[in-house]
Structure formats: structure tokens, C-alpha cells
Amino acid sequence: MKKLKVNTGRKYEIIIDRGIINHCGEYIKKVSSPTRIAVVTDSNVHALYSQSVITSLKQSGFIVSEFVFKAGETSKNFRTIEAIYSHLADNNITRKDMILALGGGVTGDMAGFAAATYLRGIEFVQVPTSLLAQVDSSVGGKTGYDIPQGKNLVGAFWQPSVVLIDPDTLSTLPERYLNDGMAEVIKYGCIKSAGLFRLLKKGRDELDIENIIHRCVSIKRDVVQKDEKESGERKLLNFGHTIGHALEKIYEYKKLSHGEAVAIGMVMMTKASERDGYSPKGTANKIAELCEMYNLPTHDDSEVRDIAFAAQSDKKSSGHNIDVVILKSIGDATVSTMDLRDFQQYIDVPEEV
Ligand code: NAD
Ligand code: ZN
């Protein structure tokens, strides 16, 4: 078992342990005393893990209800949020009660947003079951949902009471989602830890995944603690994401998964910073080699003009400026702001460089 303390708006713990999903109730009892717990989960995760979680909650004496939505990003909208609110009201969830988010990032983001807004805010617990949710979305307090104009355009910062991470749940996660999460793991290595980057070169079969999750969560914890609302340090977490988001958008969220798009973004950004002498020669290749080990793409044929255009409408760009993350070396990153008009030229690196 590994534990981490987070001290943002509220203090809470992240506990990583194999099989912890069967003991949710006991851990919740240590941090809070709700009467009722509403479990929010998606259809896939429901079939696999709801029974264990609900049994544990009932054994600890909680009154449990469950809300299940159709798995997938297309459910991450206000209609689902509204249905969650109805479920909470119908099941007499009060200010003293709690929501438990059981699932990937889609579940955590929506359940967290419902918790942030229902009755002006109730407690919630994160039980992330995808690698992406375990190393990224369950930590940091960002919650929200998508609207037709863009992903995650509505949201709130709302911290969980505790995060319970069970690495064993990854045994059922489809391969593509596992690789998706690995892109974020590689990102953490790139921006903050040469040691983690080196470890990843061993390949997935040799990794101690509990240790990897712990390292990633510690990095994210440290970053969000320094900068909860993303005014400085937290921008580092966007490494590869400006181009990544642009590519996802170009392909209308169909051809590339988030992690795949981010992998391409990390390599492209580093090629650009290498050309300008900010990153040592060979850095982009090292990242590309690692991404390939985890079946992540490192190149895309989109025109830089289209990427730059899509990046302009990214909500993370502010006014005429765009923040780019530059690796001074693997494990050491910095943020630089540039004029949006220069961005297209910046990322336009001929293939042979
Ligand atoms: P997801 O929640 O849709 O999960 C991916 C798929 O895996 C789903 O089909 C799900 O049913 C399935 N699944 C999850 N756990 C499983 C398990 N243990 N076994 C079998 N199947 C399982 O998506 P995701 O990739 O986890 O997260 C992506 C979402 O996270 C996006 O909406 C993104 O915006 C959000 N996100 C949020 C933050 C944040 O800081 N809040 C950060 C990064 C990403
Ligand atoms: Zn990401």
C-alpha cells in the first residue's frame, strides 16, 4: 500500500493498493460519516466492479444507490449530469451524504461536477479504474462535462474526500485505453522525472504498475499543490496537449484517442524546441522511441496550418498568446509564451530534422 497526502483547497489522501476496491467502505468511514452514498459509474465498469464496491459500502453500514450511464465520452454531457441530479434527489441524498465516482475519467469528471453543484456542493470520493484516471484525472480537482462547442467547457474545481486507487482493475482495461494512459505516464517522465522515463524503457511487462502510478500521482500532486488553478506550474501538465487537442479536434475525436494525440504532440513540440536549440538534440527521438514501445503514434500527416488553426480555439490559449512547454532536458521542463501567429511556424519542422 502507498499513501499520499494532498493539500490543496482541502486536505485529502490518495491511497494506492491492490484489492482496495473491496474495502471502499472501510476507507470512507475513516474520512467521513455520510448516511447515504450514491455510486456513479458507467455501463462497462458497472458490470465489472459495482458489486464489489456496493457490497463493501453496505458492509460498512451505508445506504447505497447506484446511477449507471452508457460508457463513453459521448455521455459526458449535461443530459447525463441532469439525470445524476434526479437520481440524487430521488434517493434523498442530502448535504451530509456523498457521491462515489467509480470508473474512468468520464465518470470522475461528471460525478465530481455533480458533487460540486448539487445542493451547492456535497462530498465525493474517487475510485478511478482506468490508467488515465488513476494517474491523472482523479487527482487535482478538475471536474466538468462537454458541450457541443467543445470538450470540458463547463466545469468546477472540486476536491474529493479521498482517492482510492486499485491497480488490479487495470487487468480488465482494454489495451488501447492502457496505452492511452501510458501517454500521460510518459508525459510525467518528460516534464518532471528522468528516472521515471528510464524506468518506462523496461517495457510494460517489466513495470511495477503500482510504483509507476505512485510516481505519477506524486508528480501531479506536487504540481497541483503549487498551482491549483493553473496559473503557472500546472501548465507543464499540458506538455503535448496543445497539439494533441488540436489533432483530436481535426479528426473529430474519432481517429486518434487522447493519449495517441498527446504522444504525437509531445514529439512534435520537442522537435520544434530541438531545432531552436532549447532542447538537446535527440530528445524528440527518445520520446518517440518510448511512445512506440507503448504502441503510441509519433507522427501525423495533418498540415501544420490546420493544427495551428485548431489550436487557436483551444480554451487553454489566452487571447493572442499560446503557452508552449519546452523540455530543457528529459525530466526538466519550462513554459514559454508565444504569439499565436508564430505558433504555426514554430511547429513546422521538416521531417528529416
Ligand atoms: P473513460 O472514463 O471513458 O474510460 C475509458 C473506457 O474504459 C470506457 O469505455 C470505460 O468504460 C472503460 N473502463 C474504465 N475502467 C475500466 C476497467 N477497469 N476495466 C474495463 N474497462 C474500463 O475515459 P478515460 O480515458 O478514463 O478518461 C478520459 C476522460 O478524462 C476525458 O473525458 C477527459 O476529458 C478526462 N480527463 C480529465 C482530467 C481532469 O483533470 N479532470 C484529466 C485528464 C482527462
Ligand atoms: Zn491528457
Automatic annotation (TrEMBL):
<comment type="similarity">
    <text>Belongs to the sugar phosphate cyclases superfamily. Dehydroquinate synthase family.</text>
</comment>
<feature type="binding site">
    <location>
        <begin position="129"/>
        <end position="130"/>
    </location>
    <ligand>
        <name>NAD(+)</name>
    </ligand>
</feature>
<keyword id="KW-0028">Amino-acid biosynthesis</keyword>
<dbReference type="Pfam" id="PF01761">
    <property type="entry name" value="DHQ_synthase"/>
</dbReference>
<feature type="domain" description="3-dehydroquinate synthase C-terminal">
    <location>
        <begin position="181"/>
        <end position="317"/>
    </location>
</feature>
<keyword id="KW-0520">NAD</keyword>
<comment type="pathway">
    <text>Metabolic intermediate biosynthesis; chorismate biosynthesis; chorismate from D-erythrose 4-phosphate and phosphoenolpyruvate: step 2/7.</text>
</comment>
<keyword id="KW-0963">Cytoplasm</keyword>
<feature type="binding site">
    <location>
        <position position="184"/>
    </location>
    <ligand>
        <name>Zn(2+)</name>
    </ligand>
</feature>
<feature type="binding site">
    <location>
        <position position="151"/>
    </location>
    <ligand>
        <name>NAD(+)</name>
    </ligand>
</feature>
<feature type="binding site">
    <location>
        <begin position="105"/>
        <end position="109"/>
    </location>
    <ligand>
        <name>NAD(+)</name>
    </ligand>
</feature>
<dbReference type="Pfam" id="PF24621">
    <property type="entry name" value="DHQS_C"/>
</dbReference>
<dbReference type="InterPro" id="IPR056179">
    <property type="entry name" value="DHQS_C"/>
</dbReference>
<feature type="binding site">
    <location>
        <position position="258"/>
    </location>
    <ligand>
        <name>Zn(2+)</name>
    </ligand>
</feature>
<feature type="binding site">
    <location>
        <begin position="169"/>
        <end position="172"/>
    </location>
    <ligand>
        <name>NAD(+)</name>
    </ligand>
</feature>
<feature type="domain" description="3-dehydroquinate synthase N-terminal">
    <location>
        <begin position="67"/>
        <end position="178"/>
    </location>
</feature>
<protein>
    <recommendedName>
        <fullName>3-dehydroquinate synthase</fullName>
        <ecNumber>4.2.3.4</ecNumber>
    </recommendedName>
</protein>
<dbReference type="InterPro" id="IPR030960">
    <property type="entry name" value="DHQS/DOIS_N"/>
</dbReference>
<keyword id="KW-0456">Lyase</keyword>
<feature type="binding site">
    <location>
        <position position="142"/>
    </location>
    <ligand>
        <name>NAD(+)</name>
    </ligand>
</feature>
<keyword id="KW-0862">Zinc</keyword>
<comment type="function">
    <text>Catalyzes the conversion of 3-deoxy-D-arabino-heptulosonate 7-phosphate (DAHP) to dehydroquinate (DHQ).</text>
</comment>
<keyword id="KW-0547">Nucleotide-binding</keyword>
<dbReference type="InterPro" id="IPR050071">
    <property type="entry name" value="Dehydroquinate_synthase"/>
</dbReference>
<dbReference type="InterPro" id="IPR030963">
    <property type="entry name" value="DHQ_synth_fam"/>
</dbReference>
<keyword id="KW-0479">Metal-binding</keyword>
<dbReference type="InterPro" id="IPR016037">
    <property type="entry name" value="DHQ_synth_AroB"/>
</dbReference>
<keyword id="KW-0170">Cobalt</keyword>
<keyword id="KW-0057">Aromatic amino acid biosynthesis</keyword>
<feature type="binding site">
    <location>
        <position position="241"/>
    </location>
    <ligand>
        <name>Zn(2+)</name>
    </ligand>
</feature>
<dbReference type="GO" id="GO:0003856">
    <property type="term" value="F:3-dehydroquinate synthase activity"/>
</dbReference>
